[in-house]
Design brief:
Blueprint (H helix, E strand, L loop, with lengths): L4 E4 L7 E2 L12 E5 L1 E2 L5 E2 L6 E5 L10 E4 L5 E6 L5 E4 L6 E6 L9 H12 L7 E5 H7 L5 H7 L5 E5 L8 H9 L6 E5 L7 H7 L3 H6 L3 H4 L13 H15 L19 E5 L5 H13 L5 E5 L6 H16 L8 E2 L1
Parallel strand pairs: 1-3, 2-4, 3-6, 5-7, 6-8, 7-9, 8-10, 10-11, 11-12, 12-13, 13-14, 14-15, 15-16
Length: 334
Amino acid sequence: MDIKKMRLGKYGMFGIQLPTSVSSAASLTSLELVVVRFPQGDDDALPRLESMEFVDEYDRGGDCQVNVCTPKLKSFKFVGPCFAHVWLENTPCLVSADLDVYQIKYYGIDKDLYLERLVRIMTGMAYLKAVTMSGSLLKTLTKLPILGWIGFIFRNVKYVELTNQWDDETCICPIANILERLPHIEALALERNKILRGPYDMVERLPFLSHCLKHEELHKRCDSCICTQLESLPSNEALLWEKNKEMWLGSTNNAEVLPSECLFDCLKTIEIRNPQGSDDDLKLMSFLLKRAVALQKVIITTTGQLSIERMNKLTEFNETLSELPRASSSVLID
């Protein structure tokens, strides 16, 4: 019997090894792999595969290198603390990628190793039309020496979605730097806390969080949904994370100079999901409105039930947003 869709998940906290037969299954069109160990030098040559999701919660890929050679692949999603040893090759139909990478800036991973992994996975993304990435990944990309090359790889991208931790002043420069290198972008979506549900979900998602905190191993399992836990670290451990942050990102972007002539000629739509209505939200939107000369619409959406206080704050945010100066005279704020 031909199998078209498959999800291969971990057993408890342990990853299982990918069966060799899956790597060449001719009928598969959708494949989801959750904490799966690969045979050394495995090649996923799946001729009909259109959708692939790769989840590596603890970066347990080891030294195995996986070459994904799927000529009909249209959608690829990676979830994990940093890119594992995954190559994307021969993917001319790949038009959508979701890179849900965790808080890179708190990791002890070697920067050169991360750069090597990044190049491997992004080489196969030259035909992308839409890309979703975490705010922390965006900040990391703009601090790497290959920023110009990334702009070349993403040259066909028309839709960008940023999730998690984008809504502060330190995001303005990274957003400016990446948009400046995406000449054809037409839509930008900003979604706050894509996977953050509440403090108790952190324990459910990462059951060994307390153990990691005690043994200074948080950098191996950290995910954007547990950033608030960093605030409760002892001062000496908190200093360690700050040093890692400085190693990755340098000084805060507050001191950086924005591109003086950076205009977004094709950006027509900005969507903000679950804004906080903070001053940083307004600073970011003020910057975008001044630079998006072809902007037509700003869409603000919320999910879940809102308290009266929250509704009032968002109403005030909308009113302030409507009064901000803008480069386009035909912007509709919804």
